[in-house]
Amino acid sequence: MEKYREFVSNLAKQRIDNTFINSDEEHALEVFVNLFQIANSNVRIFAKNLCSDVSNKPEYVEKLSDFIEKGGNVDILVNGYDKDESINSNLFKRLAYYKSIGKSIVIKSTNVKPHYKADPEKKEIHFTVIDNCAYRIETDIEKRTANCNFNNEGVAKGLVSFFESTFNESVEIDIVELFNLGSHGDK
Amino acid sequence: MGINDFSSLLQLAAGLNAAYIAVDYSTRGYTQILSNKLFEFPRAIDRSFQKCEKILCEKETLNNLNPLEIVTGKSTSVNIEEYKRNFEILEKKINEEKVKLKSQIEIECEAKHFSFLSLCMFLFCTTSLFLGGLEKDFKNLAQLFFCMLGSFLLIFIFVGWTRSAEKIKAVNTVNYSKLSHAIFVFLFSFILSLVLIFFINEFLYDVKRWLLLLGLNVFYLRISFLIFFTLFPFVNFVVFLLIVRKKGVLIHKTIVEKAGQIEAECNVLKLKVDNLVSTTEFVSGLIKGD
Questions:
Q1: Is residue B165's pLDDT more than 60?
Q2: Which residues of chain A have pLDDT under 50?
Q3: Do B77 and A181 touch (CB under 8 A)?
Q4: Residue B283 contacts A where some CB pair is shorter than 8 Å
């Protein structure tokens, strides 16, 4: 695993245009951590509900927090929003905190189930895209198999375009209200 | 008493120095062993931050603390998340500081010229063993050469002890990071000693007379020099031990300062968490069940 970490870190730091595939949660986490580390301005996430083990791992939450504190924008689309699960999610709690203090975070809910155009089975995919250049596309959402690349503008821009069009038509989830952060404790 | 009487000691010194030439040139072995195993500087760094790391365990309390809407209509959720984030930042800071300090220790305690000095000592020891063989027939010359060679090498060795390799390189033509220069230094000292002993030997009787006039016992003087230069090859190890220890003491002050700063931040955060827990307990105590 240590060698895999070095491999992914090297690709990320040097922004190498190399598509690699990974699966399982441990490898997925490593890719997410590096994606958030290299992000400059935008992180766009299309997921089911972001209440999975991976997105609630401390490393995932910490790296995303680092990005938000750097002044980055986080836009999230979920197509399987579950209020009860979200209340217990560490990631949602953290995002709600940052939203309540004015950081640029928007979470919206949609019914759209994205898939590859050329896929006859129309298998659902989820993805995370960083700025306009890096991405992780989960092609098998059960096995967590994904295609990843830290520097492919062509594919990344396509994802951004799809994300933005769906995002604009979706309904925002008020996570501040969800955690009752409208009026917060003494500071 | 002569050089030959100390041949076992010289053989041991030759072996030790030869071993550390190879090891130290590739891995900076001796000074690393002193730093890591004898003085345990990396462990001292870990120990300095132990108090901070214990305080960071309070994060678990926050993970299990349920947010409350207290009577004035305010929630503690924001505080909980804020403090969790502060814990993460502190943890990261501690890890970064530990890595930085350990790296600093490694650089400070590194002695690129140790293998140079070891090679000089090794060559001196092997020459001395050879002189021990000649001592039977050429006692005065052999012992004089032994002391003369040791004296010239002592000058170069002393410069090596008192300066870092980088500073020496800048000032002199001798590069203490290169083993080839150690050989040149030895050859220079060897030739100079050879030339001088023949000159001194011509006037040896007069030299002894002058020493006697000065009130110096020639016999004891000779023995003192022999013993000194026999132990000379071991002194290198002792001097570097003292150099590394001195550097460690200086870095220790930095470690204590950094650990103290972070510990203060950890204590402030702990106080906030304790207040939050107390508030939660107090408010929980006000709520009655059905």
A1: no
A2: 183-187
A3: yes
A4: no
